Amino acid sequence: MKSFFNLLFKPNNKTKKNEESFLKFLIISLVGLIAIFDYFTGSGIRVGLVYVIPILLSASINRLFGFIIAIVCALLALAIDIYLQRYSDYPIYYIWELITRGMIFTLVAHLRSSLMYFILREGELARTDYLTGAMNLRTFREQLQTEIYRASRYCYPLTIAYIDIDNFKTINDTLGHSEGDRILCTVVTTIKQHLRKSDIIARLGGDEFAILLPVTD
Question: What DSSP character marks residue 128?
Answer without folding.
Answer: B
